[in-house]
Specification:
7-stranded mixed β-sheet; binds 4'-deoxy-4'-aminopyridoxal-5'-phosphate; globular; 4-stranded antiparallel β-sheet; alpha/beta; 441 residues; 17% strand; Aspartate Aminotransferase, domain 1; 2 domains
């Protein structure tokens, strides 16, 4: 039995099945969000009696709350080894919020660098915020969905001094591939560009080291979300050099971020406070910091090894399922615990419904907010997508994804494989039974 299992809230929850009985829920949708640690639940409960307004409050509880809020920054920064002297940490709602903020702020710098290099692998959160503010080009992926460093080099050469930023997922939420962010950073820096890493799928699974600024390979900007690392929804971070945030207009404006306002002038607070308008999610921050303390105790290399073991075990077992098709090649690239697949003849949306109703197993299906990447993996062109959008009766092709957390175990994987084999061998029965189920794509 996985020793981390007992640290997680809700692992023994029973869910209803189609046949009227109940079974212990299996969660293989950890790339979407993870259940919280018990330590997070406890720390939030212990903190609630001390919860109060932060910053300007002079009551004892306010001062204590402010201290907790401010001290959290250093704990999170040291978890990813941010540069202590130069980097600041801004609390945000999530990765999406962080990237929107960064795009808004960088677009104010008038330095003649108007190009952002994104990639074909990105989640919409690391694509759309750049589109209306910069000329965006996308680094290509190869036939296995791996990022092409050759194309990256070519694009850096093509745009020369125009590249302001390279923005890349630390790990893909679809294939799980881990990108060589430090090599990519060195390549960006040699061209005078900076790098932003979307750490939403990296930071929860791999030891991340942003490195200090003297290193050519340092990561300039990093964003991630607490809800993918065993804390609940609602809190994320953006880390980067303080200088970036000093002379800009903040992305979101309002209270808490100004020293003084007249109708003629605004005197902003110093970053990071300048970038945290409105009342903050203090409980979310307590939860995030608590989750990070627990992950630090576990050790990120242990977390990585547990998940790698689960991934390799599942992959080797799933290979024997009839008509299975995988969309990643983990033997060709380092990955986190994500496996994208389909069983030929069973629609992806139907597959996740069947697994839920028949076995209490939660997986995700569709395009996972990484549409161009999935379209490419499925061999669909932009024209194919237009045609599908114009056909109201079309069942969109898509992918089924299982994604592991540190608490999953081999017995759960055995159950998944057993059900997948059963479905693959009795397709007609299951299709007829659930043919009215249509998931979101
Ligand atoms: N980037 C990646 C790679 C992700 O997987 C996700 C979440 N699925 C995001 C960004 C966005 O994260 P959030 O919804 O927490 O903002």
């Amino acid at each position: 039995l996985n020793k981390y299992r007992s640290m997680i809230v809700g692992v023994n929850t029973k869910v209803p099945l189609d046949n009227g009985t109940y079974t212990t829920a299996i969660n293989f949708d950890n790339a979407a969000t993870t259940p919280p640690f018990y330590s997070v639940e406890k720390e939030v409960r212990d903190f609630l009696p001390w919860y109060s307004s932060i910053h300007r409050g002079r009551g004892y509880k306010s001062m204590l709350s402010t201290e907790v809020y401010e001290a959290g920054r250093d704990i999170v920064k040291s978890f990813v080894k941010a540069d202590n002297k130069k980097d600041i940490l801004i609390y945000t709602k999530n990765t999406t919020d962080s990237i929107n903020m960064l795009a808004f702020i960088l677009s104010q710098e008038k330095d003649g660098r108007d190009v952002v290099l994104s990639t074909w692998m990105e989640h919409a959160a690391n694509d759309l915020p750049w589109r209306d503010k910069f000329t965006v080009d996308y680094i290509e992926v190869d036939q296995f969905g791996r990022l092409s460093l050759e194309d990256y080099e070519e694009k850096l050469k093509k745009y020369k001094n125009r590249v302001k930023l390279v923005t890349v997922a630390g790990a893909s939420n679809v294939t799980g591939y881990i990108n060589d962010i430090h090599l990519m950073a060195a390549m960006a820096h040699r061209n005078g560009a900076k790098i932003h890493v979307d750490g939403a799928q990296l930071v929860p699974h791999v030891a991340v080291d942003m490195k200090d600024f003297e290193s050519d390979e340092h990561i300039d900007y990093l964003s991630f979300s607490a809800h993918k690392m065993y804390a609940p929804y609602g809190c994320g971070v953006l880390i980067g050099p303080k200088t970036t945030f000093e002379d800009c207009i903040p992305c979101c404006v309002g209270g808490s971020i100004i020293k003084l306002i007249t109708h003629e002038r605004i005197w902003w607070e110093e970053p990071p406070q300048k970038n945290e308008a409105g009342s903050p999610n203090l409980i979310g921050i307590v939860a995030m910091v608590s989750a990070i303390k627990t992950l630090s105790k576990i050790g990120m290399s242990n977390a990585y090894n547990v998940e790698k073991n689960l991934h390799d075990y599942a992959f080797s077992k799933m290979k024997s399922i009839p008509d299975i098709k995988f969309y990643s090649s983990p033997d060709k690239q380092e990955t986190i615990g994500v496996i994208p697949f389909n069983i030929e003849g069973v629609h992806h949306s139907l597959m996740s419904a069947i697994l839920s109703y028949e076995a209490g197993i939660a997986v995700r299906n569709g395009y996972f907010c990484s549409h161009p990447y999935c379209e490419n993996l499925l061999g669909l062109s932009a024209k194919d997508m237009e045609d599908l959008m114009n056909d109201s009766a079309s069942l969109f092709p898509g992918i089924v994804r299982v994604s592991f957390g540190i608490y999953n175990d081999h017995a759960e994987i055995d159950k998944l494989v057993c059900f997948l084999k059963q479905i693959a061998s009795n397709k007609k029965y299951y299709i007829d039974k659930y043919s009215n189920s249509r998931g979101r794509y």
